Amino acid sequence: MKELEHIRPYQVLGVADEFPEEIRFFMPQAQGSGSLLSIESLLLIKLMRITQPKYLFEFGTYKGLTTRLLLANLPPMSGVSGERIYTLDLPSLDDVHFQGTDVDLAQEALGFERKYLQEQDRHLVKQILQDSMKFDGSQYAGKFQFIFIDANHEVAYARRDTENSLKMFSQEKGCLIWHDYGHPEFPELTKYIEDLGKEMKVFHVEHTKLAFHPRGFNIQPRVVR
């Protein structure tokens, strides 16, 4: 039976890509939640470099920190025009059920001038304001090669976001990524991702809260010493 596999960061970072070593990096916020760890930011950039996506989708804009990170390191793509990063967030908190501290983070994000708006290439970002429980991914069937799920962590929302992601996920080389696997506030989310690992290949990167499903590429083997 398939099971979610726990891997080390070097098994992702060691995969060859076609880009120069320089990246743009932003120091994560000094807070316990709502942003990526430094190693998670590096892994996200690396997965983007490996997959070289034409189009990306992010569930959970929050303050636009991850959106900015992806935008600043977006691989150039000839023949692709218009918006390339689509990011979805709540327009309001009405009728939304939250788990843990998510409600506080969602409240913080309302009315916040999102960080990606400071970037010169901000025109490449399409902001969608909609409750993801009401979002229909079939309108973007097969469009995205890179999808990052980090929105409402209540398991019904995570399931809905994942189901929509699988509709939108391209058959080309790509990556579907979940954040907050293993977070103590969201045990149902962790179990849901582990259950997904019985149906598809899912890796969890140790010492992070990132889990991902790769399509069309392999990670480095684990070194046994």
Distance between the termini: 27 Å
| Major β-sheet strand ordering | 1-7-8-6-5-2-3-4
**CATH topology of the domain at 52-200, what is it called?**
Rossmann fold
Give the number of helices.
6
Strand-pairing-aware structural class? alpha/beta
Question: Residue ranges: pLDDT <50 for 5 or more in a row?
Answer: none
Characterization of the model:
It is built from six helices and eight strands; from the N terminus they run E-H-H-E-H-E-H-E-E-H-E-H-E-E. The chain is of the alpha/beta class. An eight-stranded mixed beta sheet has the order 1-7-8-6-5-2-3-4, with helices on both faces.
Task: Provide a brief overview of the structure.
The chain has 225 residues and is an alpha/beta fold.
